[in-house]
# Entry
Amino acid sequence: MTDSSHKLIERHYLLPFILITSLFFMWGFARAILDVLNKHFQEALEISRMHSTLIQASTYVAYALMALPAGIIITRYGYRRGVVFGLLLFGLGALAFIPGDTMGSFSVFLLALFVIGCGLAVLETAANPYATELGSPETSASRLNLSQSFNGLGCILGPVLVGGFLFSGDGDSSVAWPYAIMGMVVLFIAFVFSRVRLPEIKSDTPAEDAPEGIPATIRRLWGSGRFRAGVIALFCYEIAEIAINSFFINYVTDDGWMDKVTATWVLSFGALGVFLVARVVGSAVMRFVRAEKVLTFCAVMTVTGALLVTFDFGILSRAGLFMCYAFEAIMFPTIFAITIAGCGSMTKIGSSFLMMTPLGGAVGTFLMGWVADLSSMSISFIVPTLAYLAVLLYALSVMRRSNNNRTKQL
# Structure
């Protein structure tokens, strides 16, 4: 059990925690809209499901390319400047939807999403480790799960607001409007962050133990088997989570379960609502139960849920779909916190490698779209099943290592 006497958030870090947590909502909103764009562009531009996965690919390839530069920027210029830079990219990318809509060009939309992805990569590279450092190391996983809960809130509102707009009426609604509004809001928040002070958290790592320079830091990180395993596990989690979100509307509409308007509401308030509640509950549970134990249990349940969908057991498969949302909720922040723990002065660069892992979303959506076009949406769930299985193997290895360390201490 964890030590519940440790405060979740230190009082003098409360304002920075609130400001940083607001960013989690924003990128949750932006990433959730992608799941609506898949179905919208399939119909508006008459493209296949596999072709529509370029939406996720353009965004998450940006994560892979921008995350390391983001870590270097944050290391050199601090968290606040990194956040402002990320917000500027985010806002400009969103406003680029206006010329994209005018030209009716899928390529311009993809370019805009790439710029947005670059901005989100910078924001996540800064905010995730910053949230873990605003308090005791013993409560870092619980604290990051709490911040990530607001990511879940953004995920709920994104599909229902934008999906309700795009799928209403005759379906000719302009995609430029929601992105233009979002762009202006994001640029205003960038101005706010440029005027506030975020305290830089000093590492407890002794100077003699800290590698000198970025290349030495990278070598030290990748020389750690524990760090490599965390990156791989997070990559696999992103394969499952993003792929399922991307094809949720396709899955529930293909067999006539519901229409696409209803599907956006069910995705927002049903699936992502379950996700949000589960993440809040998980944050509370991890104040008393070790994070690796919670992660192992949740991994077993997601594998079970994904298998139920894959083998098409009717109503049980639908229950399995919601099981995936419920039990995957704590995975990202928990794996992130476990992996980044102990990185000390290497935390910012370590975070940048962890934030390359959303590239798994591009891989997962492509594979699911490919399998779905060849067979069915149900069978395509074999992709997230295998990804969840990889997370389970990681969780078991972490729990075994933790038990060994505790035995040595006794």
Summary: The chain has 18 helices and no strands.
